[in-house]
Design goal:
Strand content: 5-15%
Number of strands: 7
Strand order of the largest sheet: 3-2-1-4-5-6-7
Bound molecules: nicotinamide-adenine-dinucleotide
Largest sheet: 7 strands, parallel
Shape: globular
Radius of gyration: 18 Å
Distance between the termini: 29 Å
Length: 256
């Protein structure tokens, strides 16, 4: 299947490792020109390994000055066709323990600054009559995960924004969707397992085994399995999918 991504310009946020890196690699493999953004350009340069199609860009999503500067540069170059909204996850914690300052700081980096950046990049997509906006959230937006109050709350705001925007720009050829990872094997998941092992005094391998056993597929997903779905949503072939939330979770969410 020709995905029609050749020559499309994609911005992938949080692309130094994990899901963002896998998505950036997947888009580049389909012929897209990828602006890969994260706080460490060195880490992006490492995996990009000189590929002409991948341009590393320094961007800290918690810094609105950097968000605007990168957006200015992209607009001066004619804008982008595809945006993948991704970035770091907030620390774990209960709803009762989360402090106002944490809500505000993480909402800025995970939601407000992304909404602002997408809003500035949208007009050029609308002018061209083609665009794809895909936001990485979490299975927690459908089935809130205990002890991840900041993530459950803030990512739900991303879902509300995405669905509202989808209706506004559907007639302009711009699709807007959300993907929900369950447990995809990245460094972050290893770090979360290590933290859980520390909290419970269990062995990390035991924690990971129990976590995988709770997933109907019986294992963590691979970043490439996740990226394949995002690349498809970014493609020409996904032109009639908008305003949707797509689970990529090996069946982990129990509701239909
Ligand atoms: P990760 O921590 O491995 O990667 C996150 C990426 O975002 C990295 O490139 C990191 O450098 C970048 N980043 C962090 N803070 C940033 C900032 N302020 N500005 C710009 N970039 C920043 O996580 P991942 O496993 O690849 O997951 C990606 C996102 O999906 C995270 O938000 C994560 O919480 C969420 N998620 C992942 C899973 C999973 O199974 N992997 C499940 C649910 C939710």
């Amino acid at each position: 299947m020709d995905l029609g991504l050749n020559g499309k310009r994609a911005l992938v946020l949080g692309a130094s490792r994990g899901l963002g890196m896998a998505i950036a690699k997947g888009l580049a493999a389909e012929g897209a020109d990828v602006v890969a953004a994260a706080r460490s350009v060195d880490k992006i340069a490492e995996w990009a390994d000189g590929q002409k199609q991948v341009r590393p860009v320094k961007l800290d999503l918690s810094d609105i000055g950097e968000v605007d500067a990168v957006t200015d540069t992209l607009l001066a170059e004619g804008g982008v066709d595809i945006i993948v909204n991704n970035g770091g996850g907030p620390p774990p914690g209960t709803a009762q323990a989360a402090e106002r300052g944490q809500w505000v700081a993480h909402f800025e980096a995970m939601a407000a600054n992304l909404f602002h950046m997408n809003g500035r990049l949208l007009p050029s997509m609308k002018t061209r009559g083609w665009g794809r906006i895909i936001s990485i959230t979490s299975s927690g937006v459908e089935q809130p995960i205990p002890n991840l109050a900041l993530s459950n709350g803030i990512r739900s705001a991303v879902v509300g924004w995405s669905k509202t925007l989808a209706g506004e720009v559907a007639a302009d050829g711009v699709t807007v969707n959300v993907v929900m990872p369950g447990r995809i094997h990245t460094q972050r998941v290893d770090e979360l397992d290590a933290a859980a092992a520390g909290r419970t005094g269990k062995d990390v391998a035991e924690v990971a085994r129990a976590s995988a056993a709770a997933i109907p597929v019986g294992r963590y997903g691979q970043p490439s399995e996740f990226a394949s779905v995002v690349v498809f949503l970014a493609s020409e072939r996904a032109s009639y999918i908008t305003g949707s939330r797509i689970r990529i979770d090996g069946g982990a969410i129990r509701s239909v």
